[in-house]
């Protein structure tokens, strides 16, 4: 069951139907790694895919949350393995890679979803260089390290790499989001560059450019409480669909207008936004 959308959300995020038979066929006996599986989009994806004959490898820091998730999915079809790991810690990632390289059936799909966002005006960031380090650590260096370690496995299985990205990386940068946007954009560029190379080895790829998604990530931002947002369960359906109908990119239908606006209206944006910020 998907959570209820408002009328506007229905328009902005029309329903995504998952063809169960196609998904069953495409995912059968596949090993699928989801990072950031303890909450939000990762958790919703694990819950959806647990109904299929797959081996789910769930990675995140919160061991208790992963254990509870695994327990709640015990009566489902999927085999579930959990690996509590802080993806920003080199030793922990090395241990994870070692374990994954021993998987009997290799790895078919890597869904790079773990992430962290920070919204903070630059004037409040002057003593907070660590904000920029920690967003780069989890949103850029962590997935780079993981993909480097797992690429040979994906290549062997002619697998699929997926990046859970944000629509913002394709649009004009918004104020207060420098740390998050820069780190997500860095990984988007890395991923797209590598995806082209890996396609020549038979590895396919999908970048999902998501709008706001109602998870704990946006909960602290008051301004987002009444703004239209997708549900994590809806995003899970998009992820599931990408498994049987791999598309290089997914973005909301209206993103074409947002992208055209970004292309033609940079001057206007950079003129108006400072004035708005001054007033507010
Ligand atoms: N929510 C949105 O509006 C939105 C929009 C566009 C794109 N996205 C992207 O969607 C992805 C998922 O976000 P979400 O909205 O589902 O957020 P979320 O509910 O906060 O989930 C983030 C996940 O990442 C994991 N994680 C964070 N730091 C980690 C670390 N150091 N090592 C391992 N795992 C870590 C968290 O688990 P632990 O805390 O247990 O480690 C959690 O499972 C992110 O990449 C985000 O950038 C979100």
Automatic annotation (TrEMBL):
Recorded protein name is Short-chain dehydrogenase/reductase SDR
Indicate whether Oxidoreductase appears among the record's keywords. Answer: yes
For this chain, the family text in UniProt reads: Belongs to the short-chain dehydrogenases/reductases (SDR) family.
- Signal peptide feature range: none
Classification from the root reads: Bacteria, Pseudomonadati, Bacteroidota, Saprospiria, Saprospirales
- List the GO terms this entry assigns under cellular component, sorted alphabetically: membrane
Keywords of this entry:
Oxidoreductase
Provide the species name. Answer: uncultured Aureispira sp
What's a single GO MF annotation on this record? oxidoreductase activity
